[in-house]
């Protein structure tokens, strides 16, 4: 029985007759293969990457498992359509908090079409991609049983200055309920989610070390997902913080050069999260005065 | 007594009635203050940086010492003009080999004028800046007393693919004479120039650690100079390999974000130099076949 993924925060979404990904109960995620070269490019990437013996296990774990392609009924009712069959990254999670971060100050490859380059360049300049090296593409933060999720408008997240992005990454690891998201974040789970030897920062640093070395793939317009379970954090358990890379429709060949565009954005994200870990409460007064709270 | 710098490899050059920098015998370098905002911006940077107490000594050593400004006779005969007074980086060097590497896949700041952005973007796309994260802006490689310097046309260096850039960075540390530059490079001084605890790679890594952390300056269109004395290397002495940062007319405020654009290019350069150190002779067969040698 296929259904609409309950925890998708960015990208094309199924429902209301629209084409989008579906999930089943066995933990598989069905992503419609886009009809143009984006679809063939993403399939080419998954096929190449999943059979690339040079990728160490501590890196391949950051990517969704690939199970090939399959013809299934498309979500928009247009009949059988080819889908990529991937690991459902939210399987086993109850109330995941998730942020989708589109990486790179440049979301276009040098060899893309002029029309596509101009479209991306305009968006990179209008959003925080250019100043920050990445932009927030979507987010959901679990509050509690009563308040549910805080899930702001996606476009409202894309063009924030560094201090605002940092504030959102603090809210992400706070115990505030979703109705309390306008208050200053208490940063209650900073150390348990971002910190520690298996926390988000450690995982980002592991990914960084690979990007400093690998010259096979350039990951244009690809996203890092950061996920964890606030419910577990509230109970004092390990919240299962995890990063995953998704969206490979614009991956190109590295041709012997590292992906300095992705890597630059990754270092920028690492710096922001390091600062939050070092001084989680540094901006409380700023937040209070902005919201008139105290 | 002011004269034209003997070892300038890029940028505006004095001589033939043109405006360019001059040097004196006491080790000072006089750079004409550009009349537009580039001049005021570069002066602002040197003034701010040289009084910034947060810059540790192991980082400030990568920058030319700043001695203020001075009115001197301009090289183009136009009379007294304000000049930045800087350390002459080639002082004490006899026959330096020098490469000027313009850093970043993007040489324009987000806040630059539309006209300037379009001009830079075009050049970044036409050169190796976009694919590599940097471009070679100029080079001189000392051969020996008889052959002098190999100093190819500057524009011929700017749009090379990664393998060709790597080849030039191998020639840079080879004992080939300047007349033998078409032959395969012997990479004789790879370890002594690029390697070792005080070599070029170590210095680049020291600079990288700072760029991963500092959020004060964004160094658009700035260059790394790499210099050493082949004469000393030939005599088995320490060749004095050194990196320096120059050209700060387009530095902007970091606003709490790292310079991911410079850092990405720096990591790309570090990767290429690491590969040369690991396998200096890997491409000999390619070089031989290209040049019809063997």
Automatic annotation (TrEMBL), chains A, B:
SUPFAM superfamilies: SAICAR synthase-like (SSF56104)
GO molecular function, one term: inositol-1,4,5-trisphosphate 3-kinase activity
UniProt entry keywords in alphabetical sequence: ATP-binding, Kinase, Nucleotide-binding, Transferase
Name of one Pfam family that matches: IPK
Coiled-coil blocks: none
InterPro entries the record matches: IPK (IPR005522), IPK_sf (IPR038286)
Region feature Disordered, mapped onto this chain: 1-21
Catalytic EC class: transferase
Reaction(s) catalysed by this chain's protein: 1D-myo-inositol 1,3,4,6-tetrakisphosphate + ATP = 1D-myo-inositol 1,3,4,5,6-pentakisphosphate + ADP + H(+); 1D-myo-inositol 1,4,5-trisphosphate + 2 ATP = 1D-myo-inositol 1,3,4,5,6-pentakisphosphate + 2 ADP + 2 H(+)
A biological process from GO: inositol phosphate biosynthetic process
Annotated EC: 2.7.1.140, 2.7.1.151
Source superkingdom: Eukaryota
GO cellular component: cytoplasm; nucleus
Record's function text: Inositol phosphate kinase with a broad substrate specificity.
Protein family: Belongs to the inositol phosphokinase (IPK) family.
Protein name (Swiss-Prot/TrEMBL): Inositol polyphosphate multikinase
